[in-house]
Description:
Blueprint: E1 2-5, H1 9-21, H2 24-27, E2 33-37, H3 42-45, E3 51-56, H4 66-77, E4 83-85, H5 91-99, E5 105-108, E6 119-121, H6 129-135, H7 157-169
Parallel strand pairs: 1-2, 1-4, 2-3, 4-5, 5-6
Helix pairs in contact: 1-6, 4-5
Amino acid sequence: KIFFFNDTATTEIYTLSLHDALPIYERFPDAQIHLVTTPEGGAAYAFHTAVHEIHYYDKKGEDKSLRALFALGKLLRGQSYDLLICPHRSFRSGLLAQLTRCRVRVGYLNSFAGLFMTRTVRRDMTQHEVRRLAELLKPIGIDPKGTPVRSHFPVIPQAAHAAFRLLQTVGVGR
């Protein structure tokens, strides 16, 4: 099982690219990808074929206490993950990664979360965010160089129609 820690909407979009653009399934053909996301971000993953299970964490709402963080850590520890990839840099994200007791935790060296990682890469601010995320795969034997970056973002038909209607109300698509 592979676990991605995502707690912000922008990283969720980029991490969707990470799932699809890079050969994770070639390296780990039987992988089950799980992730943590915000309640708001969960809808983005509801129909994503790469995601097997979603765990919700509302760090600014009902889950902002340390008790909630430790409870989530205990829940995730019970999943027995083989690999955890943490693109976040905060101490809280690193602590949650540690609480999972996953033996292979990959994150950024130059961050507070990096203190809790077992394998790290330097976060290169001269690169686009998608490329920086791709670098997190190097410590697990996937070289992202030369891999075309593409994104697949599945949209349910009802959401597409609602978005189209909304755009029409402001004069787009007439």
